[in-house]
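#data-curation
PF: Archiving a pair of folding outputs for the training set. Convention for this channel: one message per protein, sequence first, structure tokens after, nothing in between. First:
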Amino acid sequence: MHLREAKGILNAYNGMNISRGCIHGCIYCDSRSKCYRIEHDFEDVQIKSNAPALLEDALRRKRKKCMIGTGAMTDPYIPLPENLANIRACLEIIDRYGCGLAIQTKSDLILRDLDVLISINKKAKCVVETTLTTFDEDLCKILEPKVCGTRRRFEVLKTMRDNGIQTVVWLCPFLPFINDTEENLRGLLDYCVEAKVYGILCFSIGLTLRDGNREYFYSKLDEHFPGLKTKYQKKYGFNYAITSGNNSALMKIFYEVCAQHNIVCNNDALFEYMRTFEEKSYTQMEMF
């Protein structure tokens, strides 16, 4: 871990990352890709030491309240004290300025800030997003070794539900020959149904590989699934989009289950929902 003062905090879409790099160890992580130009070891997390000050300054100058998004590139709950203090401070600033929040994480450490999330949701809109990839807990420990398992993330979704906070699940990636099965998909969808998630983002049954994350992914295939790298290379070459042969059948199941349980599964609609600020009326606030 190392600290660095940043020059800015919000992008054009009001998205922010308070750190760069990660120690979760997910074998498929796209953020390792060279195109993102991380100039330090990925596991040597760079923490933006002045993130709270930058965010406060940015929100002070905004004419209108907005949704703030975080977690798209780097999980906001990297388990380092400096990082956890930063994300807490940023959430408190968002709450103080009456803005909304769309926050994406795989970590149950988000529960430590549940009180702030509830407060944000009383005034505006808070959306908690998490990624689910693998129903099998033993397999999850291989694919996502240093973060809480799928069952625990399911518990987080239920906690958010019980506190009136809407949730969105990123159902991805599905790794061909590993977790691209009907059993896995249905197990994850059962979790989503029980947790009453607002929506599910699922682009296809597959994953993406670019320079940087491809090499890391293949090294982990060699470590945990001997011989599978050769199978990938033969079938997919250097393709960016790695689509499972089970894509059509599994996506059909996905859309059917979402329709049956009124779960929003249109990706464009979900992104629009998470970016649209909604201020609670006094009547709504009194209901909490």
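PF: Second:
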Amino acid sequence: MGTLFVGLILAAIIALVVRSMIKDKKNGKSLQCGHDCKHCGGHCGQ
């Protein structure tokens, strides 16, 4: 029973992280772009 409870908590945390990443991607943010355009060639639109 404890394993199921911990598994559900982990699944919920993972779902929240993925949802946050999708939301950030839709807003133009990403983990790959640090908005330091002199290093990335300016493809981020700033």
